[in-house]
Amino acid sequence: MAASESYPDDLNYHAEHDWARIEGDEAVLGITWFAQDALGELVHYEPPNEGDAIAKDSAYGEVESVKAVSDVIAPLSGEVLEVNAKVVEEPETVNDDPYGEGWLIRIRLSNATEVDSLLDVDAYKQVVAEA
Amino acid sequence: MAQMLLKTPLHDRHIALGARMVPFAGWEMPVQYEGVIPEHLAVRTDCGVFDVSHMGELEVEGPRATTLLQATLSNDLDKIGPGQAQYTLLTNERGGIVDDLIVYRLGDFRYLLIVNAANRETDFRWLKEREVPGSDVRDVSDEYGLLAVQGPRAIERLGLPDASQFTFAEGEIDGIQCMVNRTGYTGERGCEILVMAEDAGVLWDRVLERGAVPCGLGARDTLRLEASLPLHGNDITPDTDAISAGLGWSCALDKEFSGAAELRELKARGPERKLVSFVMEEKAVPRQGMTIEGGGEVTSGTHSPLLDRGIGMGYVLADSAKPDTELTIDVRGKPRRARVVKRPIYKREE
Question: A95, B128, B206, B319: most buried by Cβ count inside 10 Å?
């Protein structure tokens, strides 16, 4: 069952509809409720490889619904520590729980100061309202 | 840029149901309501209803209507009588496919053609320019709404009698007069119901009350691809021909029609490329325009909700067209394996 619209206030957001949960020098990344709703039910997740370096504002993977494919934009730079295998196997997990079980990757931050450039929940909600 | 989009008689109903609307062939159409996958599965397991009122209806009438259509359509109208319908192609002088359509023989001298929305005007002009004395072509699309009710329980839910595929009859559903056509584009049993535009809304409501799940263009595409039914504009075009597309069965090569000589020659020679259905062997969704290694191209691709895998159609060199042949598709720079399968990918149990 698809989740209902929400934007947790403990996350940092990127205007390309991605979120980051900062955990010390690591971060868990995913796409927002708005992104999964715009795409529809996800049927494929093309993740990066563990160990890959990803760069803020650049694509690190793809998510795909029946009708469309979309790049996933990195909100922060870092090294990929872990790919969510559950989403690779069951991409619809992202629709069901975009901020929980539907996380996409965990990274080690290469530049912690980038966190300051991310949006807080109110700023991101403004992005959604204008989308 | 605001584009003026046409609206079907059911437009308000779609909005009220919360459908996601998209532009399609000049129309504003529902692409999904609840979601493509549940809608798809509703049609495979029970019953779904699609608004296909955007499709065109052309009427061809007169003592020489048959002469006109026999010269322009690929299939042989002598094979059907009043009450029967036929899949056929409108072909150009090179044998290319101007459109694919279903012709309904209303009487000895009267036919209804239900054509693709995007080709309505092309088809009308094409036939109008070739009219012969004693034949008259009219575009009557605006007079009608069209609902496709599809699925193993579609006929039962509508309270209709059983009937053979590719037949039609006047009918009544909850007091609404309509033409019930035993045709469809999903690979399931069901019908397509032609109704006066002013009655379309009430018919839609009654069909939903009878338990049909509203389905959008998204599910229509995944269903037709599982059933290996080509889409004009993607898999077949004025630059592709029936022989290469595996639609030779809809061409009566023993009669004369536009492009018949070219198609006969092509059949004798054997086409260079053939349209095939394929299933991905790796996790990936094929899309229109992707390259198939060795000189092929994907013409349609999607994710099959039934198989939970990528599926598609595309042209490959004739010697790669046999079922079980392995293909490699370039999915945004990554080679992904697929396998040619016997058409259709999905076949309902009789």
Answer: A95
